[in-house]
Amino acid sequence: PANLLESELFGYKEGAFTGAIRGGRLGKFQLADGGTIFLDEIGDMPLPMQAKILRVLQEREVESLGSSAPEPVNIRVVAATNRNLKQMVKEGAFRADLYYRLNVINLNIPPLREHPEDIPLLTQHILSQLYHKTGIYKHMNQEGLDLLGQFSWPGNVRQLYYIIERAVIKTDGDIISEKDLPAEIQPMDRVNHKTRLPRRLDDLLAQVEQEEIIRTLEETNYNKCKAASILGISRSRLYRKLLQYKG
Questions:
Q1: Residues 127 and 235 in one domain
Q2: Which of 15, 113, 175, 185 is most buried, with most CB under 10 Å away?
């Protein structure tokens, strides 16, 4: 919601709204004072929020929710988007003044499909990140890497991350192979062949349970206590399930 985004970026004073914590809270702009702030998916921000961000860039000051006294900030802003901001300006969906204010240095990052040779290194990096995040160590074999290199990756590196994350949790053993990767990146003939194979009901139920646990862990940023509460199971039972998935 826009008001939640505003409180995150600009902060708020005590009593600014119902639920505001005592003493208020600094926003991301104040916390970045003297440094750099990264605004991801700037093209998705609503027009009223765009106006507030423009003011920060022009006036070099921030006004917290519930305050009438602007605070000076000295920040560099880096913004990213996967949308065509020029076209959005023409359509009135993005402010022209903010566009030109941000578009001082433009870096065009090519889609992942245009540099598949980077996928093995990215995969290794993601697996290392996931090991530090979940404690689950996995390695991907060459067949799995070859399959990743053949996919078009419309969601780019984020999609690659979540595909690997899911494979890490679902794969038995330490090696991720092509058969452990989801159907969405498999060749169609292989997917069709798989769907014709008979499957036991208990295997299907176990897969549904595993996918739901993975989804809940992703949504809670791997907070196991919170995930167990949402799933309605004990924390020890969740740990046992995760140990099963580690193989």
A1: yes
A2: 185
